[in-house]
Amino acid sequence: MTADRFKKRALRVLAALNGRAPVPVTKGGAAACILHLGETRTIRCPADQLEAMVDQGWLHLSRCPSSGRTLAAVSADGVTWHKRMASGDGFAGQHREVTSANIDGQPDLTRNLAESPLARLARPGGAQRDAWLNHGQVAAGERLRSDFEFGQLSPSISASWNPARTVRDSAGAHGDPQNLSDRVLDARVRFNRALDAVGPELSGLLVDVCCFLKGLEQVELERKWPRRSAKVVLRTALAALDRHYNPPPPQTRHDIRHWGEKDYRPTL
Could you report the per-residue pLDDT of 202-217, keeping only the tens digit for each? Predict the structure, then answer.
């Protein structure tokens, strides 16, 4: 058994088991095992390779309490190893969730969904738990970050020799307005309006998490907040931000114009 053949077999088995409940494993001969993925779908794997994946910690074998059959499930280490190998980018790739996106009218751009702290809070927590943030709240946070980046508001820590980048003066990230394009100025106006709509109590948290990509634990440590409190405040801030970007339709007011007694009749 060569290393390349074992790697290809392991990638195939782990990809098939990822996201599934434990599947039954039966013998397929003297030196083979069969993993039953469904009623008609199976994967045949040499027994020694299956044992090697178990020894590596990529697979976890258990026994069904009712039927007594052997069950196989991919472990957390197996998911991490598969992601690292499939990405082709070493250990950095296992922490990425790369997808194709359409950003600012430009199609087929590569986007890392795990880059923002909002991505983890947008995933369901299990079969009985919904995601902490809904789609509108995540989209609002990404929209704020987009204006932050297009407005060139991030501080520069080194010299930039890119001629396409806007010239900045010694004042820092804001630069001279005369040297900024209309697109940059529009992004800054949208960014400032969004923060004003949210209010000073919540805007700082949005900038830290959505723009500077700080983790919630870091925010709680810097602001001396109780543990797990930043997650609650963040959802409130994103809900206010989403309401700014997508304001609800105005509601018709039904004001009381007159109090009448039992036999009151209006005058025509």
Answer: 999 999 999 998 988 9
Same domain, 145 and 237: yes
Element (H, E) at 24: strand 23-27
| Dihedral angle, C-alpha 238, 244, 250, 256, nearest 10 ° | 70
Identify the burial level of 145 via C-beta atoms within 10 angstroms of its C-beta, where 0-12 means exposed, 13-18 middle and 19 or more buried.
buried
Q: Which range of residues forms the domain containing residue 49?
A: 3-87
Phi first, then psi: what are they for 35, rounded to 5°? -100, 120
Tell me which long-range contacts 110-117 makes (C-beta under 8 A, separation of at least 24): 115/213, 116/141, 116/142, 116/145, 116/210, 116/213, 117/209, 117/213, 117/214, 117/215, 117/216
Q: Under 8 Å CB-to-CB from 42, ≥6 apart: which residues?
A: 34, 35, 36
Q: Convert the pLDDT of each residue in 49-72 to its tens digit.
A: 888 888 888 888 888 888 888 888
Cα 30 to Cα 140: distance, rounded to the nearest angstrom: 58
CB hemisphere CA count around 154 (13 angstroms): 16
The secondary structure of residue 126, as a DSSP letter, is B
Helix (H, G, I), strand (E, B) or coil at 209: helix
> How far apart are alpha carbons 17 and 71 in whole angstroms?
11
Q: Are 31 and 147 part of one and the same domain?
A: no
Query: How far is it, in rounded angstroms, from Cα 58 to Cα 45?
Result: 15
